[in-house]
């Protein structure tokens, strides 16, 4: 991941997942996103998966069969009740990978069983739920983190490091997009499962922008709703004291999903799949005429970077990560609450 000619070289700030302490995971949920975690963590880090929980024990067993090797030689237990998973003495941390509407109650279930938690994004239905979970973690002295895996990937770590060292000067504009064609995914059109584009897709550009600029001073929102009442598409325009930002997301069409950051001294671009493992291009306005410098941030796997962060924090006795702190989770949830309010999206039970 080396490059020459940039104002600073941030490559050294990307921690190596294999160097993190080993941590034995229990996975709560047996869907697609859980499968990616189950494949990445044992393959690319020192962690392992020792138990899987589902409401259906046969589904947990089928999940284990579909992801061989996640126990790294240790037998992986299948649990047909979430209570049994969090009570499993071999489990040192719980990864929660169920629909958004269940995150808060399941996170509290794991915390009260004495287990640190990594909770899939979006962390909860709303900021109020997120606060209650994190207050419980604080009271119990346990680690909790939103699984915003993209913040830990090399590309975004490199981007933040370049910006923090002043390579781009003062930021003036940030734009990020996340478009996927997902209307075939049933849970995403069901309000009772907190469906819609925002909590599943829009959280990525909003979290990216937040990681660079923080909470906006003002925002405008436009969007479209599905007949079921969930959001199909939103554009969020945000104003800061000295910058603006735009986050776009939709679940009824696909897109290249780029991001661009413009500062007074240069421009950073991730032209495709900004939230994944794509090259990061930096073009400095220094008159040298050397053109953009490109960091090849492509790496195998994705979810092991966040798992390694959890392992480091737990081993060090920390309750939260400095990369994805509790304040970031709550502030992004508050932004999304405001977006849903403008669009008129309300989930059952709110």
What does this protein structure show overall?
The protein has 350 residues and is α/β, with parallel strands linked by helices. Helix 1 (32-44) crosses helix 8 (304-315), helix 5 (127-140) runs antiparallel to helix 9 (326-343) and helix 7 (197-213) packs across helix 9 (326-343). The longest helix is centred in the C-terminal third of the chain and has 18 residues, at 326-343. The protein has helices at 32-44, 57-66, 82-87, 100-112, 127-140, 154-164, 197-213, 304-315, 326-343; strands at residues 24-28, 48-53, 77-79, 93-96, 117-120, 144-147, 171-179, 218-225, 231-239, 244-250, 259-263, 266-270, 280-284, 293-295. The strands form two sheets. An eight-stranded mixed beta sheet has the order 8-9-10-7-11-12-13-14, with helices on one face. Helix 5 (127-140) links the parallel strand 5 (117-120) and strand 6 (144-147). It is built from nine helices and 14 strands. The protein folds into two domains: 16-150, Rossmann fold; 154-300 and 323-343, Dihydrodipicolinate Reductase, domain 2, CATH 3.30.360.10.
């Amino acid at each position: 991941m080396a490059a020459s000619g940039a104002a600073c070289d941030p490559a050294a700030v990307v921690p190596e997942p294999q160097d993190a302490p080993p941590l034995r995971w229990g996975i709560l949920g047996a869907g697609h996103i859980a499968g990616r975690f189950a494949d990445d963590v044992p393959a690319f880090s020192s962690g392992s998966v020792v138990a899987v929980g589902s409401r259906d024990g046969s589904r947990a067993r089928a999940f284990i069969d579909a992801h061989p090797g996640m126990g790294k030689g240790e037998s992986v237990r299948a649990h047909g009740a979430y209570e049994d998973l969090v009570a499993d003495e071999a489990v040192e941390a719980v990864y929660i990978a169920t629909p958004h509407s269940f995150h808060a109650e399941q996170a509290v279930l794991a915390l009260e069983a004495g287990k640190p938690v990594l909770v899939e994004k979006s962390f909860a239905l709303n900021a109020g739920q997120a606060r209650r979970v994190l207050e419980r973690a604080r009271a119990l002295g346990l680690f909790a983190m939103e699984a915003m895996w993209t913040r830990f990937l090399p590309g975004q770590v490199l981007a933040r490091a370049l910006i923090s060292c002043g390579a781009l000067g003062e930021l003036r504009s940030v734009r990020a997009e996340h478009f996927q064609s997902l209307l075939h995914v049933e849970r995403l059109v069901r309000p009772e499962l907190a469906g819609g584009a925002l909590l599943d897709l829009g959280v990525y550009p909003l979290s990216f922008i937040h990681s660079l600029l923080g909470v906006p001073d003002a925002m405008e929102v436009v969007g479209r709703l599905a007949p079921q009442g969930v959001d199909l598409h939103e554009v969020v325009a945000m104003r800061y004291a000295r910058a603006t930002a735009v986050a776009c997301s939709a679940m009824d069409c696909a897109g290249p999903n780029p991001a661009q950051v413009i500062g007074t001294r240069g421009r950073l671009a991730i032209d495709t799949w900004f939230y994944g493992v794509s090259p990061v291009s930096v073009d400095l306005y220094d008159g040298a005429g050397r053109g953009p410098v490109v960091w090849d941030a492509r790496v195998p796997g994705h979810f092991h970077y966040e798992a390694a962060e959890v392992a480091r924090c737990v081993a060090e006795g920390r309750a939260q990560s400095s990369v994805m702190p509790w304040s970031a989770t709550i502030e992004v949830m508050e932004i999304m609450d405001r977006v849903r309010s403008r669009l008129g999206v309300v989930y059952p039970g709110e």
